[in-house]
Each structure stands twice: as structure tokens, then as C-alpha cells.
Amino acid sequence: MNNCLFCKIIAGEIPCKKLYEDDDILAFFDIKPAAPVHFLVVPKKHINNLLELDSQDSLLAGRLLYRASELAKEQGCGEKGGRFIINAKSDGGQTVDHLHIHFIGGRSLRPKLASIFLG
Question: Can you give the pTM of this predicted structure?
């Protein structure tokens, strides 16, 4: 996708603070963190959102979740946890049309944070 922010980050056209990368996945820290630990995990393949996965993407979706979990533990959130967020489409608060998982943690997260954090 030519205008996709995350595709540009994946292509190296826009810099990011990488946390993890392999052939299929890129994880990087959010530029406007909502908590001390806030990163995104994105597939390198452009998929608009979770509602547009097809059966061929099921393994990739599982790998995204697994990697998000492992990175959360590596960032020190394994014991106390955090919040994994996948927004889908405009009513779900998705602001970048490229499937992505947010992880936020590193402090206690109150329910009001969900209303503040919709991106």
C-alpha cells in the first residue's frame, strides 16, 4: 500500500525504534506511548485489519499474538501483565489501516485508559 504509514515503516522509509524483526513481522515502540511500555507488532504483509484476515493468514495471526506476548515478557511485563489491543475499522478506533497489535504495560492500567487510547 503506497500511502500506508506502517508499510512505509516496514520499508524503512520512515524510521522507528525497532524492538523485533523477522521475515514476516516487525515490532517497534510507539512514538506516543500511553504507558512506560508501549509497542506495536505488525505483519509485514499488508492486511487492513483483523476483520479482513483470510484463512491463509491464520498462521501469521497466531505468530503476531505469540510474538507480542514474548516481547511483553521481555519488556518486564510478564509478571504483572498489560493490555493487548487490536482495533478494527473506524468504529473500533483504528486509525492506521494496517493490522497491528498494541501492547501497553509497565504500570497499572485503569479502565479509563481504554477511552483515552483508541489508536
Answer: 0.89
